[in-house]
Design goal:
75 residues; 15% helix; mainly beta; 6-stranded antiparallel beta sheet; globular; 1 helix
Length: 75
């Protein structure tokens, strides 16, 4: 298993719905949190989380929220 650090931004879509932007992976939790803080300046909301994964085996652990700013749907 390896740990992945993901940042997911959200913006307002058609008819005011919250729409997910493309998720981006980072090498460290610190890097993901810094990027999330910068992204939050221009997005409706942003979340940084870590998740253990073994993509080859198709196994994914539960996500752990590192940082959540603004309007973010629940994981």
């Amino acid at each position: 298993m390896e740990t992945q650090y993901i940042v997911q931004g959200f913006e307002t879509g058609k008819r005011g719905k919250v729409v997910a932007m493309p998720a981006v992976a980072y090498k460290t939790a610190e890097e993901a949190c810094r990027r999330a803080e910068r992204l939050a300046e221009t997005c409706l909301g942003v979340i940084a989380f870590e998740q253990s994964a073994d993509p080859e085996a198709g196994e994914w652990g539960d996500p752990v929220v590192l940082l959540s700013i603004g309007d973010v749907p629940e994981l």
